[in-house]
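Folding problem:
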Amino acid sequence: MSAKRKSKTKKWVTISIITMVVVGIAATLLMRSKPTPYEGADAKVGDITTYYSFSGNVETKDRQTVVSEKVMQISTINFKEGDTVKDGDVLIKTTAGDEIKSKISGVVTNVNVEENAQVMAGVKLLEIVDNNNLKISVKVDEYDIAALAIDKEATVKIGAIDKEIKGKVESMSVEGQTVNGVTYFTATIDLAKEAGLKIGMSAEVKVISDEVTGAVTIPMTAIQFDDNNNPYVLKKDSKGAATKAEITVGINDGTTVEIKSGVSSGETVLYSKATATGVMGFRGGGNRNDAGGSGN
């Protein structure tokens, strides 16, 4: 055999050996990195609370707009903007000796006239707002009216002062307004007193929609649906294989779901991360409005 042929044969043998080694290493790595087909989650006893959410702004429950009832010349203005007045205080005197009094207690705002000025009838002179009795008005979809029964408690989040304030549903408008084909009603939430709270601040209002206590719960990611949209979970059978188990679901808070039947507390359900339903795919016992706040 010529030296050239021997060199070529040696080269191919070396390449073959290297290829076999690479294939062997790759096969070993693939076998070691093969993922576990299922994750496990234990059913637990817990509480779930779901909420309806609405947005609005802080308003005063009582406001007086002081308007001139006739032509007059202002003689004296007894209070400046920001001053506190009581019901019955004399706000303005005229050169004719007339007195304009406050009809509520509150803070003077929007002073629009000066002393010695002559004004016509119907001119807005100033305003008084009651900062101690505040409310929030929110628009409520016609389908959500039942969530805001009179005297129902509400939680109000004021972002500007980073506080949550207790409130109570005070009233609901009798007549709705239709905007772009959707009918809304106006609900008024009476607010508890809170330092730093100011008229005009934006607020998020939450009222309880549904709640359960001592329920069997599992993560929503463990739930799957068949072709008829019936929920089920996977459990291990006596041989350790994953088997389908039908379930009945209750309410959910977007993360955790109530199980009414099909799973007991302490049981382990199986799910695959690749096929997990997730919040967007869940069609079980949720609300038509946003949910939040699990008490598990």
